[in-house]
Amino acid sequence: MSVCCCQIQLRKRTTSISWFSCILWCSVMMSPALGYVIVNSVSWSVTNEVEEELDSSSNEEALPALLEDTTSIWKQSYPASVYKEDVEMRSRPVAGRSKEISSPSRMFSYRRESIKGTESITPQEQAIRTARFLTHYNSWGFLATESTQEKIQGVPFGNCLLLSDGPVNNSTGIPFFYVTSKDNTVTDLMKNSRASLTLPEAEGDFCRKNIIDPEDPRCARVTLTGQMVMVPPEEMEFAKQAMFSRHPGMRKWPRSYEWFFMKMNIEHVWLQNWYGGVSTISVEEYFKTVPNKE
């Protein structure tokens, strides 16, 4: 192969070329990296036309369309303009589908598989179910309070706490906690009971299996804000079942720490589960909806 390339090169030039220069020239011309984009060790060819589409479409509004994939995980998607055109073509009669889409983009996306029985519900209904799912299936959460500690008084202070909204087969949507006054977070709550609780989907399998970073909007998270209060006597038995069924090791925690139960009276629900901003969910809709099972 090198001899052939060298002969071609010698025909175009009147001066002699060293074998080393010839081999170097052939190596550059035949390099497989030309015309390819490398992304996490995965590469595929990209045409100039697609490059122009991506450059013109890579803005905040077009990002969801660039990442959308109508087939399955790891399939290549298309630039925003091509994707929209494809959607329009699907709504037309078969005879009108004359243009074939053949150029893959340099972006690929992950798409959550649909759950049986949820194909007909609206995006808002699905968002509410996702929020309830995250509250029920998370065994811990990130609770933020206003600090009362001397050196950081008044500064937001976050802490990871174990929680449960009920036994596995009985979701209430209300986060319960088993805490001690020796914890700085509880000390903060005794002075200011308002707090926010973030529950990430990163604890589950979806984000890990699909290699999605926890901060990626496709890796959902819900934030609940409200008042943290002590569980009243009439709810004490349920709180025990909720916490100890999900965290059996709690039964053996040292009694000298004087553990007690708290819960959050939810006032606001915020969900991030896709590009394009945070969904606001009413408390009424949140409590009357059953969580997704996966």
**Strand portion:** 15-25%
Cα distance spanning the termini: 56 Å
Number of strands: 9
Shape: globular
CATH topology of the domain at 123-288: Pnp Oxidase, Chain A
Supply the CATH superfamily name of the domain at 123-288. Answer: Electron Transport, Fmn-binding Protein, Chain A
Task: Sketch the topology as an H/E string, one letter per element.
Answer: HHEEHHHHEEEHEHEHEEH
* pLDDT averaged residue by residue: 74
CATH C-level of the domain at 123-288: Mainly Beta
pLDDT < 50 runs, ≥5 residues: 2-17, 30-46, 62-87, 94-118
Radius of gyration computed on alpha carbons: 28 Å
Helicity level: 25-40%
Based on secondary structure, the structural category is alpha+beta
Number of helices: 10
Please give the CATH architecture of the domain at 123-288. Answer: Roll
Biggest sheet layout = 7 strands, antiparallel
Give the tags.
single chain; 294 residues; alpha+beta; Pnp Oxidase, Chain A; seven-stranded antiparallel beta sheet; two-stranded antiparallel ribbon; 10 helices; 9 strands; 20% strand; globular; disordered N terminus
Structure at a glance:
Belongs to the CREG family. This protein is an alpha+beta fold and 294 residues long.
Describe the structure.
- The protein has 294 residues and is of the alpha+beta class.
- α1 packs across α2.
- The chain has a domain at 123-288: Roll (Pnp Oxidase, Chain A).
- Strands 3, 4, 5, 6, 7, 8 and 9 form a 7-stranded antiparallel beta sheet that branches. It has a two-stranded antiparallel ribbon with strand order 1-2.
- It is built from 10 helices and 9 strands.
- It starts with a helix and ends in a 6-residue tail after the last helix.
- The model is unreliable at 2-17, 30-46, 62-87 and 94-118 (pLDDT under 50).
- 22% of the residues are buried.
